Amino acid sequence: MALALNAENELLKDLNEPQKEAVLHGDGPLLVLSGAGSGKTRVITRRVAHLVRFRGVFPWRILAVTFTNKAAREMRERLVQLLGPQAHELVVSTFHSSSSMILRRALKDPKLVDHKVAELMGLTPSFVIYDDGDQLQLIKRAMREARVDPIMQPREILHRIDGEKNAARLPDQMVVDVDDARGVVVQKTYHAYQKLLRAANAVDFGDLLLLLVALLRQRPDVLEQYQKRFRHILVDEFQDTNPVQYELLRLLAPPERRPNLVVVGDDDQSIYRWRGASVDNILDFPEHFPGARVVKLEQNYRSDQNILDAAHAVIRRNSRRMPKKLWSDRPKGDNLTLLLNRDERAEAQEVARRIHGLQREGFIKYSGMAVFYRTNAQSRVLEEAMRLARVPYTLVSGRSFYDRAEVRDAAAYLRLMVNPRSDADLLRIINTPARGIGDTTVERLVDFANQSGVSLYEASAAPERIAGLNTAAVRRLSGFHALVSSLHAFAQESQDAASAVDQMLKETHLVESLQTEGSDESMTRAENLREFLGAAQEFDLNRAAAAVAASTVGDGDAAPVPPEEADLDMSPLTADIPPLNAFLEQISLVGDADAEVGEGRVALMTLHAAKGLEFDAVFITGMEDGVFPHSRALHGGESEDGGEEMAEERRLCYVGFTRARRRLFVSLAQCRSLFGELRYNPPSRFLAEVPQELFGIAEQELPPAPKEAPFTKKKRNWADEDDGPRVDRTYSQAAEGEGIGGDVRGMRVRHEQFGMGRIISADGQGPNAKVTVDFGGQVGLKRVIARFLLPG
DNA sequence: GGCTGCGTACAGGGC
DNA sequence: GTACGCAGCC
């Protein structure tokens, strides 16, 4: 007992009072309002550990839902540290991932073979998950088949359908006015699109949640099973839940039963409105769950006060937020640094140079630094600059590896192996590698399949029945059908993912066809396919390890399950999913997990991807109106705070600022290439909202607020600048590599041929200035043109 | 039937 | 700048 008590103290000792309150909260709903850096993950993981260790809750009774895979992975790791192998019995996953697993189990359940849920008709446990690209293809096909007026772009229709799904509305539940021609188009396409998905034994991301809600609503027996099992549900990042996710929670944890539902979130960090998240979910939680307790976490453990002040200055302009203000007992810390640059290339170079500087000072390691940007399109030039400056970096983009064409081809084959009905996958690879099945043949195949109401795979079984095909086409089609059929048969028998991938690569000759091509690029792609096989092998190993871990716990120490719950399924949700299906599931939902570990590397990512992370030094690039805040938010309404879109950009800025522990650099470029044209954007309005003294600039003005838009003047060159605001120090240093400006004597520079050196004197300004540099040693003094120098 | 080259539309974030 | 679709040629 003493030991246990000690351990309990151990679990609580470094928590503050509100954190303890949340961890120890007994039964019933709880809302934890947690500001940035207030230790929210710690609260969730400790609470889970406490439930298991000291309140006798079986791990398999706990469902912890996060919003992103990264968050789920981190939470799982921390729980393994706290609980050991027992943690593998917990269900810790994203909404999409757990929904998918529950759906698959239900479709497999013999008692549910005739489930009579209309929305699920056509789905088997081997359904595949279509991504955005597949979705768009299918929308185009649905538009054709529904013969809708082409008054809308497919992409826009897809966006609207996604919106309907996020709002938990099926095609029939759409609210459409009869005179709303566009609404009618969306609804008709939505109907046809769902039909095509079911015919292909496929779902999209939205379906995962929507169909589960449909199932749980129509099958009380299934609902009860999960209500009974999950006695404790914890939701992270609750501010980002959308209506269909909220509905799912309310089904599993009905408000009137005072469920043990703990939701944790921060309305100031709600940044997913664009994909249907509703801040109201968190704002109205206490009303929806009567008797809910509310705990506020306002002490920040992460950032120096200056950074918190800056973040607060921005976020306080939003009108609709829950009252709270972060505080910290940490010191004021360093000033924020504003980097003004000529263009995005200069910006990227300056960031790389600053990173070098911080690293050389020795206080901050590469892995403690991150560079954020608003849109993915900004990442390329940053990457180039990092490579040139030899800064080790990791691009945290989620799933770059699985987005490569050859890897997607391989994945398409795998998906056909488990689900030959998947037309989108079949169309993708029917002629990859080239096997003489061209557009004409495919078109005839598609027509035939449509007329007969079968899948393309089934249609290809008897190609001689397809009108218009010559004997060569018939022969090739039947060869292709034999290939898929053989792979499908193999998949039925295979015991692990790797052997299935191996067999697929063998039979399809994907690797050989790339190797015969012989180009450097094709060799890289062949290498990627081998890496894909490696990923499958690693997946098998992890799965085996997890299975062992799960089976070794709970053998001796399991308390009896109450008799009325004797038939309760306590197995991991992944338990009976065949390995190949599980591997595909991971590819679809999780992406490239390995890309995210970047030991000794600077992290490059979007602001959205940054949520939940922290770094000693943070660079936020592209601080310009039109980039950040994004141009779409600029014209969003006439209200004081710029409308809901602008409010969301502001929250995103708040998220970005509060990732920094000690150093925060904000950077902008006077002009930048966007959409292939040169744009002159005014400085971000968020910069003007930060008090100047936080930048350590007292007498000089910051860039004026966007209304005056000083940088929008065309053809303005930084070197010509003689009036208006400027920050000399950053200007001159930013200019290196692109030329020089200001007093550069003594500055460290690098030359491709001569190496490192120090500037002695300079003759002239800008890129063509002649500079005398002391390179030391054998090289000595050299006269070089400034544009050939790199930041030291 | 397959390939190349040109033109157009496009890029907001992620499960 | 990139991705896709289409026309025209082999």
From TrEMBL:
GO terms for biological process: recombinational repair. Keywords: ATP-binding, DNA-binding, Helicase, Hydrolase, Isomerase, Nucleotide-binding. It holds the Pfam family UvrD_C. ATP binds at S34, G35, A36, G37, S38, G39, K40, T41. Residues 305-612 form the UvrD-like helicase C-terminal domain. It catalyses: Couples ATP hydrolysis with the unwinding of duplex DNA by translocating in the 3'-5' direction; ATP + H2O = ADP + phosphate + H(+). Its EC number is 5.6.2.4. Residues 13-304 form the UvrD-like helicase ATP-binding domain. One of its GO terms (cellular component) is cytosol. Belongs to the helicase family. UvrD subfamily. This is DNA 3'-5' helicase.
